[in-house]
Amino acid sequence: MEQTFIMIKPDGVQRGLVGEIIGRFEKKGFALKGLKLLTVDQAFAEKHYADLSAKPFFNGLVEYIISGPVVAMVWEGKNVVTTGRKIIGATNPAESAPGTIRGDFAIDIGRNVIHGSDAVESAKKEIGLWFPEGVANWSSSLHPWIYE
Ligand code: GTP
Ligand code: MG
């Protein structure tokens, strides 16, 4: 089944939003396949956001991501990449709908609490980068109560 990479950024960890964010993905019905708390270095953050290296905010973005521990996760489920991005909300919290994570918990684009892969292909790449050791292989006994 489809998987996505979700990261709670340093501001989300510092602000005590880890449980709230995990709860939203869990309650939706998605399955947690990988989870760890870690602090990444500059080279790793630059690799994760390599596609944005030409942007004027790139250096600030890298500084932000390495400023403290993050929670890296792999979530699995039908359409989890697209639906995960909907749960997260628009990049700029000024435009994120209430009810989304960024809409409910963030104000500035440079402190938007959470990352989610933007496509199935980038999810595969990001899962490989963040979880080179692989992820857990289990299936929830709730599956028949979530999927028809
Ligand atoms: P991620 O899930 O973090 O990848 O966000 P996104 O896919 O919604 O947006 P994008 O990949 O375009 O940008 C990555 C991150 O860079 C955003 O989440 C913001 O934290 C930051 N960012 C994007 N645009 C801006 C900007 O115009 N100014 C600043 N300061 N940060 C930005
Ligand atoms: Mg992105």
UniProtKB/TrEMBL annotation:
Example GO biological process: CTP biosynthetic process
Residue numbers binding ATP: 9, 57, 85, 91, 102, 112
SUPFAM superfamilies: Nucleoside diphosphate kinase, NDK (SSF54919)
Top-level enzyme category: transferase
NCBIfam families: PRK00668.1 (NF001908)
Keyword Ion transport: no
Annotated catalysed reactions: a ribonucleoside 5'-diphosphate + ATP = a ribonucleoside 5'-triphosphate + ADP; a 2'-deoxyribonucleoside 5'-diphosphate + ATP = a 2'-deoxyribonucleoside 5'-triphosphate + ADP
The name this protein goes by in its record: Nucleoside diphosphate kinase
Gene3D superfamilies from the UniProt entry: Nucleoside diphosphate kinase-like domain (3.30.70.141)
Native species: Helianthus annuus (Common sunflower)
Chain's role: Major role in the synthesis of nucleoside triphosphates other than ATP. The ATP gamma phosphate is transferred to the NDP beta phosphate via a ping-pong mechanism, using a phosphorylated active-site intermediate.
Entry GO MF terms: ATP binding; nucleoside diphosphate kinase activity
Family in the record: Belongs to the NDK family.
Top-level lineage group: Eukaryota
PROSITE patterns, sorted: NDPK (PS00469), NDPK_LIKE (PS51374)
InterPro entries reported in the protein's UniProt record: NDK-like_dom, NDK-like_dom_sf, Nucleoside_diP_kinase, Nucleoside_diP_kinase_AS
Keywords carried by this UniProt record: ATP-binding, Kinase, Nucleotide-binding, Transferase
Taxonomy of the source species: Eukaryota, Viridiplantae, Streptophyta, Embryophyta, Tracheophyta
EC number(s) given by UniProt: 2.7.4.6
Active site: 115 (pros-phosphohistidine intermediate)
Kinase keyword on record: yes
Obligatory cofactor(s): Mg(2+)
Location of the Nucleoside diphosphate kinase-like domain: 1-137
